[in-house]
Write a structure and sequence with these properties.
about 325 residues; alpha/beta; Rossmann fold; 2 domains; six-stranded mixed sheet; four-stranded parallel sheet; 14 helices; 10 strands
Length: about 325
């Protein structure tokens, strides 16, 4: 089912009291380097440091009173776990967050600081899912997937909705692609609210499952996860992929060095902290500069949760 325009508008109204309306930054220097007009939607300045707060709040708000009393559960090695924990705390709901044993301690502590009940699992997707389902069975908690959930992806789309309210004549919006929630929500927004605005994804070559999925017409998975963009290692889902297939123009792949260079430019020139995944759309634009020459382009800076002990440059 493709969400309606009204569903997106309702989500925007519903989550507004609980999220920041993040600023849109511009940079004359980065415009000159790219040959375009760039508008950076700075979700790195969102509550808990990433766009995922939007989807988490929207999903919990849709639950019944009985479901809220039982709590919510997800599995996440980072941003969505933090988002669901903080969103649940704001709404008086218990959140159980299954995190793999390989998760950096700083991220586990962040989830705990937001009131999330952390359950450590073996570092495989199967183990994470197994632990989450055990909590669903024992606690009757509602499982909320980080990206393959309609209420989540509609919530994520509100970032692009705000961007288009501020700059309605954008010709492109570029987002990173990981689990597919952000790009699916953004594509819906561009479809309903844009003026012939195309949505493009940026993805590392090392985890190019979404690129291959668009080519093959079916969900592909990755056999390696060797990328600095740790937020983009997950694959698409059966709920968001039909939207992506219908509404996303293309996905541009980038090398690891290109991601680092784009991240460095934004840190140095714009003086804002972004995580590697956030740099991927800007890297994609720089890789294909001719395609975007003299266009007006929105870029979603998806998050700013950087492990400073492991900084890439």
């Amino acid at each position: 089912m493709i969400p309606t325009k009204e569903t997106l508008l309702e989500a925007g109204r519903r989550i507004a009291p609980f999220v920041h309306r993040t600023p849109v930054f511009t940079s004359r220097l980065l415009n000159d380097i790219s040959g375009t007009q760039l508008f950076f939607k700075s979700e790195n300045l969102q509550k808990m440091g990433a766009f995922k707060m939007r989807g988490a709040i929207n999903a919990i708000q849709q639950l019944t009173e009985q479901e809220r009393k039982a709590g919510v559960v997800t599995h996440s090695s980072g941003n969505f776990g933090q988002a669901l924990a903080l969103a649940a705390k704001n709404l008086g709901v218990t959140a159980y967050i299954v995190m793999p044993s390989s998760t950096p301690a700083v991220k586990i502590e962040a989830v705990k600081s937001y009131g999330g009940k952390v359950v450590i699992s073996e570092p495989t997707l199967a183990a994470r899912e197994r632990e989450a389902q055990k909590i669903v069975a024992e606690k009757k908690a509602v499982f909320i997937h980080p990206s393959n959930n309609l209420n989540v992806l509609v919530g994520q789309g509100t970032a692009a909705m705000e961007l288009l309210e501020d700059y309605p004549d954008l010709e492109y919006i570029i987002t990173p692609v990981g689990g597919g929630g952000l790009i699916a929500g953004t594509a819906l927004v561009a479809h309903y609210f844009g003026k012939e605005c195309r949505v493009i994804g940026g993805e590392p070559f090392a985890v190019d499952d979404a690129y291959r999925s668009l080519k093959s017409g079916k969900i592909e998975v990755n056999t390696t996860t060797n990328t600095i963009a740790d937020g983009l290692k997950t694959h698409l889902g059966d709920i968001n992929f039909p939207i992506i297939k219908a509404l996303v123009s293309e996905i541009i792949r980038v090398e690891e060095q290109e991601i680092k260079q784009a991240m460095k430019l934004i840190w140095e020139r714009m003086k804002i902290v972004i995580e590697p995944s956030s740099a991927v759309p800007f890297a994609a634009l720089l890789r294909e500069k001719e395609e975007f020459k003299n266009k007006r382009i929105g870029i979603i800076l998806s998050g700013g949760n950087v492990d400073l002990s492991n900084i890439s440059f």
